[in-house]
Amino acid sequence: MLLVGPNGVGKTNLLEGVHVATQGFSPRTRTDSQVVRFGADGARAAVAGGRGDVRMELEVTVQRGEGKRARLNGAPLRAAEQLRTVVSTLVFTPDRLGVVKGPPASRRAYFDRVLGRLAPARATLPAEYGAAVAQRNAALRRAAGGFSGRDAIEPWSERVALLGAELVAARLDALDQLGPSFGARAAELGLDHASLRYEGEPPTQEALAAVLDRDLERGITSLGPHLDDVVLAAGDRDLRNYGSQGEQRLALLALLLAEAETIVDRTGVPPLLLLDDVLSELDPERRRILAARVRSAGQALVTATDAAMLPATPDQLLEVTSGTVLEAAA
After folding, report:
1. Distance (Å, rounded) from C-alpha 301 to C-alpha 322?
2. In 3D, which of 181, 191, 300, 199 has the Cα closest to residue 251?
3. In this structure, what are the phi and psi dihedrals at residue 299, rounded to the nearest 5 degrees?
4. Whole-number Å distance between alpha carbons of 111 and 108
5. Among 78, 126, 232, 291, which residue's beta carbon has the most beta carbons within 10 A?
6. Domain parsing of the chain, residue ranges
């Protein structure tokens, strides 16, 4: 599906609404109130579709002062984020280049969401590890303040080591699954010798004990996967520091396509792709390659300012103007 229209008419907002309805959160902000239009009391995003012969209806509402609610086929969900276990939605927007060129926290967050999509049973592992680190940090501050002894830190060090080792192993497994496809898709787009590399080691109780004095002084846990990084490289170059803007865009796009392939391999169900302004900085040959790849990847919503930017005939063409979306002849 191709959505066309001038800049500023709401194409990105439309993709954002689809993401909210299928994943329970916005890809542009983690503050739910920011998805509500200025002057409005609330917002609602709903989509309907099918998976084979199974009809699916997903809905998310955000009300100022009341939080967020979600429904699946009319039944309320405990948390809106549960929608992610039903539908996989992958999104490319120019502001998501932070995954490549941003700080390590951006990549950790991205790959932990990838981990949840590829291995749903491990989806809660990053949060469980984060909670253990928070508890150890609290124990460190209590001990440093004289309110408890060092022995109160030990159970949380053990917990951090256990969950940290599991998290590192899960991340490495996810990268092993993505790596071949990432390299292949990047090469197809003209970014040769692309690879994913994990930087970090599983924490151990011995290592945590060795830094205990430093951690007590600072009041934080100074090693573990909450500080690790994933390097997106082209040959020997870390694209964060030594990649051009164009190479960083290609790496992000290759990562998205690689994840889509991997999800299909593992589940047999293709994800929904949301590609915002992905064509504007690609040359005609790369546009052709992307169009062919996306057509074989499942359902995709692509935005552009001009239908001629997509070198293929879309299954559906929508023209977006301020406040309206109308179907046009493809």
Report:
1. 19
2. 191
3. -80, 135
4. 5
5. 232
6. 1-87+273-330, 97-270
Q: Cα separation of 173 and 118, whole Å? A: 10
Tell me the whole-structure pTM to 2 decimals.
0.90
- Greatest CA separation found in the chain? 73
Strand order from edge to edge, sheet including 237-238: 194-199, 229-234, 237-238
10-residue stretch averages of pLDDT, the chain, 330 residues long: 94 94 89 87 92 90 90 94 90 92 96 93 95 98 96 97 98 98 97 98 97 97 98 98 96 96 91 94 94 88 95 94 87
Q: Where would I find the H helices in the chain?
A: 11-23, 98-101, 104-118, 125-144, 154-188, 205-210, 212-218, 239-242, 245-267, 284-295
300-304: strand order across its sheet = 89-92, 272-275, 300-304, 2-4, 317-321, 324-328
- Choose among 276, 178, 192, 273: nearest CA to 239: 192
Domain spanning 1-87+273-330: CATH superfamily: P-loop containing nucleotide triphosphate hydrolases (3.40.50.300)
- Give the whole-angstrom CA distance, residue 195 versus residue 178: 9
Task: Give me the torsion for CA of 226, 232, 236, 237, rounded to 10°.
Answer: -100
HSE, side-chain direction, 13 A CA sphere, residue 68: 22
Please name the residue that has the structure tokens 């967020």.
68
- The predicted pLDDT at position 83 comes to 92
Residue 276 has a CB neighbour count (10 Å cut-off) of 24
CA distances for 137 relative to 132, 141, 162, 203, 219, angstroms: 9, 6, 16, 15, 6
Contact, 104 vs 227, CB < 8 A?
yes
CATH level 2 (architecture), domain 97-270: Up-down Bundle (1.20)
Torsion sign, CA atoms 259, 261, 262, 268: positive
